[in-house]
């Protein structure tokens, strides 16, 4: 059927070569399969690690956002407090300035009124005596200061 014994021997050799090639290919595929499975396992471990780091980062971000919100609230409170202090200081300053202006006007009006009264009640001679007395006082003051 197959021909001669020699053909049968060649067929056996070819059969053995094919068998060996198939076994080598099978070994190669098994090794390749193991490497792929190891790569998948490593990828899964890396993915789990990345997820853990991501969750930690999210938790840290949430904590920082809460702290930032608290800082904003506290910072705004401090700013508002400073503004309130500046406002109160400005109001006090303006009140003191207004009080001083009123005092000056009242004093000026009182002096003008007193001068008016003095001028109207003094006659010329009394006026001259007052001027002489003032000149004398200025002379004494000048001597004291010299």
From TrEMBL:
Coiled coil spans: 47-74
Signal peptide: none
Top-rank lineage group of the source organism: Eukaryota
Cellular compartments annotated: Membrane
Entry-linked Pfam families: ATP-synt_B
InterPro entries per record: ATP_synth_b/b'su_bac/chlpt
Membrane topology: Single-pass membrane protein
Keywords: ATP synthesis, CF(0), Coiled coil, Hydrogen ion transport, Ion transport, Membrane, Transmembrane, Transmembrane helix, Transport
Keyword Ubl conjugation: no
Similarity remark: Belongs to the ATPase B chain family.
Reported function: F(1)F(0) ATP synthase produces ATP from ADP in the presence of a proton or sodium gradient. F-type ATPases consist of two structural domains, F(1) containing the extramembraneous catalytic core and F(0) containing the membrane proton channel, linked together by a central stalk and a peripheral stalk. During catalysis, ATP synthesis in the catalytic domain of F(1) is coupled via a rotary mechanism of the central stalk subunits to proton translocation.
Protein name, per record: ATP synthase subunit b, chloroplastic
Native organism: Gossypium arboreum
Lineage of origin: Eukaryota, Viridiplantae, Streptophyta, Embryophyta, Tracheophyta
């Amino acid at each position: 059927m197959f021909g001669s014994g020699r053909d049968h021997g060649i067929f056996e050799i070819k059969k053995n070569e094919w068998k060996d090639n198939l076994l080598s290919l099978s070994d190669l595929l098994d090794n390749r399969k193991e490497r792929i499975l190891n790569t998948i396992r490593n990828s899964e471990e890396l993915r789990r690690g990345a997820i853990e780091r991501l969750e930690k980062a999210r938790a840290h971000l949430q904590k920082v956002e809460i702290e930032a919100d608290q800082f904003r609230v506290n910072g705004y409170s401090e700013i508002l407090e400073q503004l309130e202090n500046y406002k109160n200081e400005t109001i006090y300053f303006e009140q003191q300035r207004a009080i001083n202006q009123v005092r000056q006007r009242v004093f000026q009006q009182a002096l003008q009124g007193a001068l008016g009264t003095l001028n109207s009640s003094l006659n010329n001679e009394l006026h001259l005596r007052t001027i002489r007395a003032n000149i004398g006082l200025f002379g004494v003051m000048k001597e004291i200061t010299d």
